[in-house]
Amino acid sequence: VASRILSIVCLFSFYYSNYIQTGLLLPAIEVSSGIDVHVDYPDFWGTFCKLIFVAAIYSAYIAVRGKNRVDFWLCASALLAPLSRLARVDVFMSLVGVALILLLFKMFRWRGALRKGALVSLIAVVFLFVFAFAKLGLDRLNQFGVHEVSYSESIEFIKSDYSETTALFYGYFPMSFENFDRFVRQLKGRREHGAFSFSGILIGAFKLNYFFPSLENNQNLRKWFSPVARGATVPTAFAGPYLDYGIAGVMLFALMLVLLIRFWHKSIHIFPSAAVPFAVILSQVSLLGFQNILLRPQGVQALILSSFFFYLGTPKARSRKESFRKMK
Question: Is 328's pLDDT higher than 70?
Fold first, then answer.
């Protein structure tokens, strides 16, 4: 029931936000509207819109465990909804999380996959989606034919013998690290001592930005450096921790991730519902080379919500404590 409520609330919030911002349920139909709002959401409804990938992952878990078509369709609807406003990141995280749920509950068996060639097909589909999302980004840049700017030009990529496809793949991964290198050099040793990391928690968990609007400014990394090119401006997930505490912040962030992933993975063997926070964390980790969603309000809220669903899916308090003792 909880997964269906979450999916319905997130889907309603998504399409209602589409309507109040653009007057259309599907802004992607009118290209300019979709481009204008693809990462911009209303204050209240936007909270649920940004959690739609959690709804897709939780619905996938319920669908696999209960094998109910309603949950399957809710999962598919939540997964595809961001495309209504030409957004990509939420769709990508949903795909990663849903794939993990299927793998964890043996809906896709490795040995059989290798024999039947399904693994090769899966890898091909992943690359197809990555390329399709990159192409969507390029089309947004050109406003779907209004302009004629190649991606290699937008990221100032030296073409020579390289193809446009090479420029796309370079811009969506290695270039983020090039931006991070420039971020570190231009920062010149300045530190914010938790302004980025803790503002995500204060906004995501306690909504203190309503009382202290300046907290939202701490999430803006662009003000600290000039990116290599306008076509790719994100400086990886490590820029925020580095801004706060330098290399020690990056190492602590990495250690926190390893411990969280290990804890939830170990919990799955005792509590199957731990698969939800496990998939939610890894879906965000999959974008570490691109940007830091985990320390943003959206990431904090996703972790809190998925942990709550884990609690709903565990046995009563006494047996829960006993199980955790065994796990240790």
Answer: no
Q: Are 57 and 98 in contact (CB under 8 A)?
A: yes
Distance CA 248, CA 254 (A): 10
Residues forming a β-bridge with 229: 232
Q: Give residues with Cβ within 8 angstroms of 87, minimum separation 6.
A: 38, 39
* Residues 6+ away with beta carbon under 8 Å from 109: none
Backbone angles phi, psi at 268, to 5 degrees: -60, -35
Q: What are residue 232's DSSP bridge partners? A: 229
- Averaged pLDDT, 211-231: 85
Query: Among all chains, which residue has been given the structure tokens 């999916």?
Result: 7
242, 183 Cβ separation under 8 angstroms: yes
Query: For 212, left (φ over 0), alpha (ψ -120 to 50), or beta?
Result: beta
* Mean pLDDT computed over every residue of the chain: 83
- Give the SS3 label for residue 299: helix
Q: Tell me which DSSP letter residue 150 carries.
A: -
Distance CA 63, CA 75 (A): 8
Which has the closest alpha carbon to 241: 299, 308, 283?
Answer: 299
Helix 195-206 with 297-312: angle, nearest 10 deg: 50
Residue with tokens 């990159």: 134
Tokens of 300: 């904090």
Residue 49 exposure: Cα atoms within 13 Å on the Cβ side: 23
Greatest Cα pair distance, the chain, in angstroms, is 66
**pTM listed for this prediction:** 0.87
Q: How many CB atoms lie within 10 A of CB 119?
A: 15
Mean of pLDDT values over 229-247: 89
pLDDT in tens, 7-19: 999 999 999 999 9
Single-letter code of the amino acid located at 55: A
φ and ψ at 232, to 5 degrees? Answer: -150, 105
